[in-house]
């Protein structure tokens, strides 16, 4: 567990997160950036419409941005977030958020959410038809509907692992399915110790059901008799974050609402980039990251 309370923790290593890190770290604050930069949608892109640059690879931009942020004192930790616990005003720490990653626990006075909005889908039969009838993309939002039932989480990264751990407190039996897992060994051991049934090396072939989900068919021919399927392919999405933190979403329920200072409705939480809505462009993400970084720094300095 990290004993040091961070001033600002930034979720996401895309252009919004990097710019927020640069501007907040330059204020002399303790800034921690969580995420995996090769998971950013920009990593594989080629940029030709960003001001003052000719064609450049997204990978080059992200690597350079991290070097810049580190030069001002920002620290990067290459893990995604499993869960976030809002402040307990009765605790000795006071108005401090607790962030659990795959292997560490961090505490922070402020959070800047820059995780993007992509919610990857499986693209298998039954997924679309049974959405809302047992198929979900948010464990925190819908897990309570499956108390005492058998469920499955699909995904091999931190969001899926965190979701599976959460469901062990609700479901009678929890399965975790992935072709390949990309999580820390310590986290894998936690999953096993929690009694989660691991299905590695298989893909989902079909989600079955009528008025509700009644099974998950795997490509090895086996079928899991589950009533709930939670698809968690990647880092935590906007719905999961909103459910945990209480941040307001826009009418489409796809994006976090912020004001002109990139503040959310929750004191100490800011957001920037694609997670705040279109246009989904790097130029917008960088600008919002700048504003969020400065605003979060101001918030932290006021609270000292």
TrEMBL record:
Which residues span the membrane? none
A GO MF label: oxidoreductase activity
**Keywords in alphabetical order:** Flavoprotein, Oxidoreductase
Q: Would the keyword Protein transport turn up in this protein's UniProt record?
A: no
Give the superkingdom in one word. Answer: Bacteria
Residues making up the signal peptide according to the UniProt record: none
Q: In this protein, which residues make up the domain named FAD/NAD(P)-binding?
A: 7-289
The entry's protein name is Thioredoxin reductase (NADPH)
The taxonomy runs: Bacteria, Pseudomonadati, Thermodesulfobacteriota, Desulfovibrionia, Desulfovibrionales
């Amino acid at each position: 567990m990290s004993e040091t309370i961070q001033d600002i923790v930034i979720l996401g290593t895309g252009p919004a997160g990097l710019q927020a890190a640069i501007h907040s770290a330059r204020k002399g604050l303790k800034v921690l950036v969580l995420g995996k930069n090769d998971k950013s949608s920009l990593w594989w892109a080629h940029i030709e419409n960003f001001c003052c640059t000719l064609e450049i690879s997204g990978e080059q931009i992200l690597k350079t941005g991290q070097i810049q942020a580190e030069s001002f004192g920002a620290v990067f930790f290459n893990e995604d977030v499993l869960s976030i616990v809002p402040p307990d005003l009765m605790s000795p720490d006071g108005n401090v958020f607790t962030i659990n990653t795959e292997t560490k626990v961090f505490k922070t006075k402020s959070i800047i959410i820059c995780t993007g909005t992509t919610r990857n889908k499986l693209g298998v039969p039954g997924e679309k038809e049974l959405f809302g009838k047992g198929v979900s993309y948010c464990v925190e939002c819908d897990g309570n509907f499956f108390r005492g039932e058998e469920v499955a989480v699909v995904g091999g990264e931190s969001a899926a692992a965190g979701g599976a751990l959460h469901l062990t407190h609700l479901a009678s039996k929890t399965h975790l399915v992935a072709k390949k897992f990309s999580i820390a060994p310590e986290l894998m051991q936690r999953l096993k110790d929690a009694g989660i049934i691991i299905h590695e090396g298989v893909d989902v072939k079909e989600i079955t059901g009528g008025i509700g989900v009644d099974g998950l068919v795997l490509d090895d021919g086996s079928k899991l008799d589950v009533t709930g399927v939670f698809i968690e392919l990647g880092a935590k999405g906007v719905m999961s974050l909103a459910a945990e933190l209480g941040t307001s979403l826009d009418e489409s329920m796809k994006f976090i609402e912020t004001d002109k200072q990139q503040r959310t409705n929750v004191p100490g939480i800011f957001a920037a980039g694609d997670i705040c809505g279109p246009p989904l462009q790097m130029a917008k993400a960088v600008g919002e990251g700048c504003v969020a970084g400065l605003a979060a720094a101001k918030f932290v300095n006021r609270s000292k």
